[in-house]
Amino acid sequence: MIEFPTLDALSREAEFSADAMLHGVSPPYVRDNIPGHVWVEAAGRAECLRFYGAATGVPPVIFLEGDIFRRRDDGEPHWTVGEGYDEIAPWQMQAEAEQYAIAIGRTFVNLARPGTYGSSGNHHERRREREVALVDCALDRLKNAFGWQSINLAGLSGGGHLVAALMARRGDIDCAVIASGNVAVRMRNQERGMHVDVTGYSDFVDPIDLVLDVARHPPNKVIMLTDPRDQIVSAVVQTAYVRALHYAGVAVEHRFLPATDAQHHILRQAAILAAARYSAQGM
User: What are the sequence ranges of the domains in the chain?
Assistant: First the structure.
């Protein structure tokens, strides 16, 4: 049985481990029906993904976080984990998710991507087919468990990549919000003089190649949020995807707004609010 976790149940769990995430997180040995956990399988391997949230109304808003670590080159390439990751505990994720659910008056879910925020999997393999398939499967299981007819989906950066990839697969997305999304992966790599993704893989899923699939069953609303000064995923890359959607016949609203971080990239709250505000009856 799939059900939402509670703050009390999560209060004894330790903070997330940056070291574990860097080396990949193994799934639990026992497939217990634990609240906030959903088992999924792709490419013949199972993972246990965590989710945080509360049910207060439909359709739900489901949020996907951005990438947690990045490749640095200080003389020798290495990976670093985002500041503060190992200071966050599951109860904090749940508390924030409950706040959003109550504030927006509808179900809110923070679905942890493979290898992050308590989910098993390898975050090094993000943007590949298996990550997309695992999240796609998790959405199906959550949707069936809670009886949702449609979903509002929002994602930041790497989570925005997933939203774009999932739009090409799913016909049940009412509103899709992509904030600072890496939605033209090949183009972004070329900007940086790279022939493969920063992960080292060349078999990445590139959303800009999938716009015709989106056009077969587009969401009722697609919103792209971009800071023109974004230093992580350039506005040029994000705009190229928007134009590709337009050419494919998919209506998309491109909104430009300022991010407050030094790299003009983090539009997390804006993505959640945009998805929460939309309903089929209008915004």
Answer: 7-277
Write the pLDDT tens digit of every residue in 92-136. Answer: 999 999 999 999 999 999 999 999 999 999 999 999 999 999 999
Q: Which CATH superfamily is domain 7-277 in?
A: Alpha/Beta hydrolase fold, catalytic domain (3.40.50.1820)
Rounded to whole angstroms, the Cα distance separating 40 from 138 reads 6
Measured in residues, the chain has a length of 283
Nearest to 162 by CA among 86, 37, 38, 271: 271
Point out which residues pair with 109 in neighbouring strands.
53, 62
Q: What pTM, to 2 d.p., does this model score?
A: 0.95
CA atoms of 188 and 69, how far apart (whole Å):
17
Please give the angle made by the CA atoms of 134, 15 and 70, to the nearest 5 degrees.
Answer: 60
Q: Which two tokens mark 89?
A: 């505990």
Compute the C-alpha angle 54/51/124, nearest 5°.
Answer: 155
**pLDDT per position as a tens digit, 40-99:** 999 999 999 999 999 998 889 999 999 997 766 555 555 777 778 989 999 999 999 999
38-45: long-range pairs with CB below 8 Å, 24+: 38/2, 38/138, 38/141, 38/142, 39/141, 40/134, 40/137, 40/138, 40/141, 41/134, 41/137, 42/129, 42/130, 42/133, 42/134, 42/137, 43/129, 43/130, 43/133, 45/130
Q: Which two tokens mark 120?
A: 């098993």
Calpha distance 194→118 (Å, rounded): 31
